[in-house]
Structures are given as structure tokens and as C-alpha cells.
Design goal:
The protein is built from seven helices and ten strands. It has helices at 9-31, 45-53, 81-88, 108-120, 159-167, 186-190, 205-213, and strands spanning 2-6, 34-38, 62-66, 68-70, 98-100, 126-129, 152-156, 180-184, 194-199, 231-236. Strands 1-10-9-6-2-3-5 form a seven-stranded parallel beta sheet, sandwiched between helices. Strand 2, helix 2 and strand 3 (62-66) form a beta-alpha-beta unit. The two termini are 14 Å apart.
Amino acid sequence: MDIKIYKSASELGKAAGIAAGKLIREEIKKNGTANIILATGTSQFETLNQLIREQDIDWSKVVMFHLDEYIGLPITHNASFRKYLKDRFLSKVPALNAAHLINGEANTKAECARLNDLISKHPISVALVGIGENAHLAFNDPPADFDVEDPYIVVDLDSECRQQQFNEGWFKSIDDVPKQAISMSVKQILKSKNIICSVPDERKAIAVRNTLQSPITNLYPASILQSHDNCVIYLDEYSSALSSAMSS
């Protein structure tokens, strides 16, 4: 795991997006295709903005998966991660080879089975992820299951996670935030050849400190990233403020 610190969220996102673009181009050059994972949420705004500006990526050779989606939330809802990716990414780049979006309105067992079959045939070369205020990874809230083998699972969202989604303005009230989601499992995320983790904002500072400085524990799910050889965590001055012995 490597750590890079920048002065602002925009600088962080630019660097992370450039790095992601480089890895995708290299993977296409080497293997003729690139299978990627995209994250959503406010932490990814600047990273995705830069990624769509990257030149010389043959998007027709890219297959995309994403990390999570609320159960029961229609794609028309402002908080839908399918809507997020369609609006902020898929509509702004040339057509991908495939974009496998999680349908949170489908039968959850059947949807997980569908996605699990698909991703088993597409080894991931580049995964873009973030870290939640409770140090969750995807929607794997603490105490996260580090052992489940299934790539996609149904998870319960804890109160801190749901409060974060409300505070970020995605929902009109805390009661509107769904209590369950389909999430990529921790083990599946760790199978990615490269992981780019973008974490701006001072409200993530405690989670970043716990992620980087605690022993690996499912009480701070993102701490598992310490075990990944090709993970780079991109921070700004605010998200890194509580973490000792760190420099850009």
C-alpha cells in the first residue's frame, strides 16, 4: 500500500484519475481489454471528472462493474448509484464494451447470482474505491465480513453509514435512507490487480487514521487495504490531518 497526499480534493482527484487512466491504457495494451470497478459518492467526483478527460483510452475495450447499490431504490432517485454512474460517467465517455450495473430493484438473490457469474469471468485490473466515515469499504460496514467468498452480497447498513448518506444530501430525511444494499464483498475487492482509493475531506480524517494506523481489523473494514501490494490511497490535507508521520 502506498499513500499520496495533496493540498485539495481537486488535486487529489486529478492525480487519482490520471493514475487510473494510465493503468487502464496499460491493461488494454497488454491484454486487449480492461475490467474495472468504479465507486460512487462525493469522494469520487473529482477522480471521475479526471478519468473521463483522459485521452487515448479505448473505452470499447473496457468492462465496468461497480461496488454497491441500495436495495429497493429506483434508478430515478437522486441517490441511486446506477443513476450516478450513468449521469457522471457512462454518458460522458464513448460506449463501453459492457457496464454491469447493480439492479437494487431486482430479486436480490437472483441479482447477486447474476453479478457473481459475470465478475467471475472478468478478473479486475483496476478498482476505484473510497472509504466511508465509519471506515467501510464499499457498503461493508463494521464489523465487516472478511471471509465471505461471494463477490456480491446483501448487507445491512449501520446507523453511521446511513447518517453519512443523509448528511451528504442524497436523501430528504434519515428515514428515507435504505437499510440494506447489495455490495461487493471485501474479498472480491482485494482480488483487483490495482486499487486506487480516493478519500478527500476532513470528515474522513478519523476513518483514514483508523484505516492506516490500526492493525487490520473488521471493525475498520478499509484497514484491510494495508494487505494489498498495489493499493494507492489518495488523500488531501484535511483527510490526512489526524494521521501521523505522513507526507506527500
